[in-house]
Amino acid sequence: MKANWEKLENNQGVLTIEVEEAQVNDAVDQAFKKVVKKVNLPGFRKGKVPRKIFEARFGVESLYQDALEILFPSVYGQAVQETGINPVDRPEVDVEQMEKGQNWVIKATVTVKPEVQLGDYKNLEIEAKEFPVTEEEVDAELTRMQERSAELNVLEDGEVANGDFAIIDFEGFVDGVAFEGGKGENYNLEIGSNTFIPGFEEQLIGLKKDEQKDVVVTFPEDYHSTELAGKEANFKVKINEIKRKSLPALDDEFAKDVSEFETLEELKADIKNKLEKKAEEDKENYERQTIIEKVADNATIDIPEIMIESEVDHMMKDFEQRLMYQGINLDLYYQFSGLDEEKLREQMKEEGSKRVRNSLTLEAISKAENVEVTDEEVEEEIKNLAEMYKRPEEEIRQFFSGRDQLEGIKNDIRIRKTIELLVELNKQTA
Q: For residue range 79-90, what is the model confidence (pLDDT) as tens digits?
């Protein structure tokens, strides 16, 4: 097999692969064994047609497409390795020569990882930023702890108030016609959470258990469903139950219940200490991120659109998983946010582009500075992963080795070391 790479514009190029006749014949043999199992010819049992009779009836060329599907993945992988390119998308394949008794010539148009022209990344001026911890932040954290310890009590005679949980049945109508996705039963709605369409939750305030009300709202003009966007809707709502938070008193007993401390003052001191540690971490993270974005802005990179779209794919999956932890799926999120998949992806695109740019820049700096990863560092990473997931080290090692992902671990370590190097290179101004 021979491979040749011709670089074109816009991070694209043509990879020409010449496959020797012997390798082609081997793929054709495999294709025949696959295809013949499905062939029915009079006088022969299914799958038992001799090769010569098959080729006389259908022609050897009938096997070429299957042979190409068998052959291409391996020769493409070899050609990529041989030419040293880094594809970022599936290739567009064109067969230039596919004739009996000759080498096959396959051309693949490939989008590759872009070249990075680094700008200044040493001795940059980084604006200092402090992260002070205030008493208000301590009190806010204490209040959150109080909220988490709150009990929900069912109200029999009370009215819905802001902050209550209303268990409701609802059905929405536009022009007197029920619309898809506008109906729910025993939905647990926190009043004031702004989960529903603007204006919906406020209209439930003051209602009692078993009361019903027609709630009239207008869908946002940019609502994801064009059939509903900008239209007035009437929701028939019934209050099935009202639950109200009962907050514990902030005293020494509360401190004993939620922590190992005996007094509220000790608990507050501990909260302040933790917030100060987090503030220090936030400061370090700010410095790192500021440096990364600054060196990335100084670099010149023509990023292929497919790389940004792939990053947005990852961001969408992460976002969907976070929603699931909150008991919400994407369809429900779209319904109440007024977004759809296209609009959400568009919102994520700028951040996705920034992430790709940062990643490519860090990779280029690691090469420029010859950042290396030792076997000891890989072993330490495996040990840390084992502790994190509470699994034996050997199990973690086999997991990554068996999936050829040790290189991924090395790359993660390399990028972390590159970031630390950037901090050192810009330490005087950070």
A: 999 999 999 999
